[in-house]
Design a protein that fits this description.
Layout: H1 2-34, H2 36-62, H3 67-116, H4 121-125, H5 132-141, H6 152-182, H7 184-192, H8 197-239, H9 244-254, H10 261-274, H11 278-306, H12 312-326, H13 328-332, H14 334-351
């Protein structure tokens, strides 16, 4: 009888422990979801720290200086490059961006008018409630003598707030990245404190491997972005599309966003090509397709052989998953997040749990 009571108390204790563990896990997941924006900013700061540390390692490979001085040298070099680029192309870029923000709405409006003349065109451009056409009429009637929409002031305010928010976020990412790269050991030790002594070394190894894998992926991505940006700029100049430089910059930067980024980057160029004529727009669309085919079928596979190979299905799933959790920021950072997940799953599950030997990106 006493044994039964003892077993019953033990069973109740075990159930209570597991219940508390499950509740704790759920609370932790809810808390992480609540602070997901802060976590994403922190991860972006990690990416910036990896970039600084990677270039600093390249400098130390050729110049025998300390890590601190090499990081300072990277910062100075980045400032010199940005200042020089701004001095040479700054006025042109600002002018072209101003023209782009002015011409794109005009081209969108013109495209809507062209589509509305097609059979069933009104149904294509109107929304489900049929209010898009009415809204457009209201905007047309509300135009001022200068041709500015009546809501231009509010739109300009929203754009200004968005720009300020983006600048503030980038500034925060840079500051976090600088703190991370200056003293990474402090943050590694803080993370290791969450685990037992037996697992702490393995956790530190995983963090080191994740940083190496992320830097390998970033190197390949920089090459791809540079290729696309330069190619698009030169190609659009030859075709005769206006604002080729800023369109090349947009195309290069959009390559950082997986799957949808290259096509989003092509939209402004094709729209501006319509301002020349239909034939130019056709040539521009074909040119963008050719560039993307060269990048995806030739350049990327060659780079991935030397850097980090991520299966296309993993990229697509990461875009969907992180996009659902983090929104547009999750889509932008989906691929580097997938790189980290590949490392952690490979080390902690495939190697440690399953006991299988697999090649992990960034692992010596």
């Amino acid at each position: 009888m006493a044994n039964r009571e003892k077993r019953g108390d033990l069973k109740t204790s075990v159930i209570a422990q597991y219940t508390l563990i499950v509740i704790g896990i759920l609370i932790t997941i809810a808390f992480l979801y609540f602070i997901r924006d802060a976590l994403l900013i922190a991860f972006a700061g990690v990416i910036f720290a990896v970039i600084l540390n990677g270039f600093a390692a390249v400098i130390r490979r050729y110049i025998p200086i300390s890590r601190g001085w090499s990081i300072a040298a990277v910062g100075v070099i980045i400032l010199i490059i940005i200042t020089s680029f701004g001095f040479i192309f700054g006025s042109q870029i600002v002018e072209e961006f101003d023209q782009l923000t002015e011409k794109l709405p005009q081209q969108i409006t013109q495209l809507r008018e062209t589509i509305s003349e097609w059979p069933l065109g009104d149904e294509l451009i109107n929304d489900e409630n049929g209010e898009a056409g009415e809204q457009q009429d209201i905007e047309d009637e509300g135009e001022s003598d200068e041709g500015m929409p009546s809501g231009a002031g509010g739109m300009a305010f929203q754009v200004g707030v968005t720009i300020v928010d983006v600048i503030a976020t980038f500034g925060l990412i840079i500051i976090i990245g600088i703190y991370f790269v200056i003293d990474p050991e402090t943050y590694k030790k803080a993370i290791a404190l969450l685990f037992t002594k037996k697992r702490a070394n393995r956790v530190n190894e995983a963090l080191e491997t994740s940083g190496n894998a992320l830097w390998s992926w970033l190197k390949g991505q920089f090459i791809i972005m540079l290729f696309v940006g330069v190619s698009v700029t030169i190609g659009l100049m030859i075709i005769g599309v206006p604002l080729a430089l800023v369109l090349g910059i947009i195309a290069g930067l959009s390559e950082f966003v997986p799957i949808i980024g290259p096509w989003i980057g092509a939209v402004p160029g094709i729209l501006l090509a319509f301002s020349v004529d239909g034939q130019t727009a056709l040539y521009t669309a074909i040119f963008y397709v050719v560039i993307q085919q060269v990048e995806s079928n030739i350049l990327s596979p060659l780079i991935q052989q030397q850097m980090v190979h991520i299966p296309p299905a993993v990229v697509i799933l990461s875009v969907v998953a992180f996009g659902l959790v983090f929104g547009i920021a999750g889509v932008i950072l989906a691929t580097p997040l997938a790189v980290i997940m590949m490392v952690l799953v490979g080390m902690f599950y495939v190697q440690d749990v399953l006991g299988k030997e697999v090649k992990i990106p960034g692992q010596d």
